[in-house]
């Protein structure tokens, strides 16, 4: 239903997720790292995107990978239009740069859970 899609796209975090996924499939830990949000919050948003057929999730061993559901996204013209309009705005522009830096850097999906855990522990102590 169109109103459900509009509600889903009205949240900036969900738009940020879709914007990053427009580059291709990503692991949940990559999204968590790039967006700087907690896994529980990310899971909530991914569930809403999944229920509205905008993304697909696929579990491979201990990792969950997400990708844009092209059929769901193309059901209406406006979701793609919105994604093209936001790329020059903040925080989407910063997300794009973070994604490019991540792709060019040494980090991999395998080491991100450890890095994220260390960051959380450091924040708790500090």
TrEMBL record:
Protein name, UniProt field: Transcriptional regulator, ArsR family
Keywords: DNA-binding, Transcription, Transcription regulation
Domain HTH arsR-type residue range list: 1-90
SUPFAM superfamilies: Winged helix' DNA-binding domain (SSF46785)
Organism: Eubacterium barkeri
InterPro entries reported for this sequence: ArsR-like_HTH, HTH_ArsR_DNA-bd_dom, Metal_resp_trans_reg, WH-like_DNA-bd_sf, WH_DNA-bd_sf
Protein origin, superkingdom: Bacteria
Cell cycle in keyword set: no
A GO MF term: DNA-binding transcription factor activity
Higher taxonomy: Bacteria, Bacillati, Bacillota, Clostridia, Eubacteriales
Keyword Transcription regulation in record: yes
């Amino acid at each position: 239903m169109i109103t459900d899609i509009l509600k889903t796209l009205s949240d900036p975090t969900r738009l940020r997720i879709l914007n990053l996924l427009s580059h291709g499939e990503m692991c949940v830990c990559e999204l968590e790292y790039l967006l700087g949000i907690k896994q529980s919050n990310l899971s909530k948003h991914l569930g809403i995107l999944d229920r509205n057929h905008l993304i697909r999730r696929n579990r491979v061993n201990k990792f969950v990978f997400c990708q844009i559901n092209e059929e769901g996204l193309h059901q209406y013209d406006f979701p793609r239009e919105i994604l093209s309009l936001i790329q020059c705005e903040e925080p989407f522009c910063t997300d794009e740069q973070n994604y490019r830096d991540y792709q060019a850097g040494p980090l991999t999906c395998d080491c991100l859970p450890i890095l994220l855990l260390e960051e959380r522990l450091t924040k708790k102590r500090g």
